[in-house]
Amino acid sequence: MEVYVVTAFNPQGFYVVAIADNLILARTYADAEWKERKGAYNMRVYRKIMNASHTIKDEIVYTK
Fold this sequence. Notes:
Layout: E1 2-10, E2 13-20, H1 23-36, E3 42-49, E4 59-63
Antiparallel strand pairs: 1-2, 1-3, 3-4
């Protein structure tokens, strides 16, 4: 099963915003968090396979 992991990051660090089962929902979460933080954090959405470790094959499918 594919999942989408939404992360917020800046030079000081990062945190996970959400995990969603579809890209549209993940992008909605990323956009809402970016707006709430007034652009202080950049957003990335990764497409991952559930229960798989982090690999170079994890694809960034959205940035803000």
